[in-house]
Amino acid sequence: MFELIGLENETDINSAVAFLREAVILPGVTLATNINNNDVAVSYGVVTTGTVDTGTLASDAVKIAQGEKGFVSNFAYEVSKHRNYERELDGLTAKVAY
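Above: the chain's sequence. Below: its structure in token form.
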């Protein structure tokens, strides 16, 4: 299932969150802060987590809804919106260089 989201293992998830935090530096976007738990942070369509519970990945995919606990559920919900208008409405797009 990690391959579905482009990651090989949980270490890659931690590296991806660190990359977003330290290299990409998305102003105004909240990222997962604790790499040792599976709390999901959703901010302007960016979905991050510290760890993924591999036992619930398949069942998470079935529940596509905002506010669900699983990473896959939240990720699928954000993708299902097709666009994140909050970024433009809150002026986030003006803070990011294109």
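Confidence is low (pLDDT under 50) at residues 1-5.
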